[in-house]
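thought: fold this chain, then report.
action: predict
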Amino acid sequence: MQVFWGDYPKEMVDEAHKNGVQILHQVGSIADAEKAIAAGVDCIIAQGVEAGGHVIGNVSWHALVPRIVDLIGDKNITVVAAGAIADPRGFVGAISLG
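observation:
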């Protein structure tokens, strides 16, 4: 299940996990990533300001992704970059950031 905007507390993540559901939380800031990590989500989608549509953050995914990867450390949480990745160079750029 993918969630976005606002808190998705540990109790809800735990309930989802009990039912075999993985949680992907889309964030736009380090503060929101810290909350998602503490809640035990399975994946963090780092949405940059260049994403368009409903944008919650105010920095580029180029700046956000490596900071989130550093926060996660050795925890088993996948990070996905989101926002204006439109060609192979953008894809490789996202991969190179961790």
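thought: worth noting. The chain has a mean pLDDT of 89.
final: tokens above.
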